[in-house]
Amino acid sequence: MVNTEYDIVASFTREITRVNLAFKQHIQLKLRQNNIDLTFEMLSVLSCLWEQDGINQQEIANITVKDKASMTYLLDNLTKRELVYRQEDDTDRRNKKVYLTGKGKDLRIQIQPWVTEMFRMVGNNLPADSVKSLTQTLGKIRENLR
């Protein structure tokens, strides 16, 4: 097999896709095992709000890398599950801010241990410097694609 630069980069990008899929599958399995009716995408929105509650829909879309239509659908479903609510922005009536409900905040307590466990598994036998270097490499790849 020829290891051209193209082959190496193609192999690397396929592995990124596989790792992303493995993360999603791991979390989805935990959600199913605990009878939590959420998708991975819904959980990504909740995670965003756990970090910064009360931000607008566009900010959440940017952070989670979702389009506006998908974000509306996700927030509608999270609202139906009584995990979030929208509130008109005092400074701009066209803008709605999204907040966690008490139920949405409480869910973090249940889910956070799984995420911590997953990151421990991922980091097993990986030196911190290697992970830092890989993070920088991925950032450069993202920049190259812009």
Structural account:
With 146 residues, this protein is mostly helical. The protein has a single domain, classed as Orthogonal Bundle (Arc Repressor Mutant, subunit A). Helices cover 69% and strands 8% of the residues. It contains six helices and three strands; from the N terminus they run ααβααββαα. It has helices at 5-33, 40-51, 57-64, 68-80, 102-123, 128-144, and strands spanning 55-56, 84-88, 96-100. A three-stranded antiparallel β-sheet has the order 1-3-2. A hairpin with a 7-residue loop joins strand 2 (84-88) and strand 3 (96-100). Helix 1 (5-33) crosses helix 5 (102-123) and helix 3 (57-64) crosses helix 4 (68-80). The radius of gyration is 18 Å and the shape is globular. The model has no long low-confidence stretch (mean pLDDT 92).
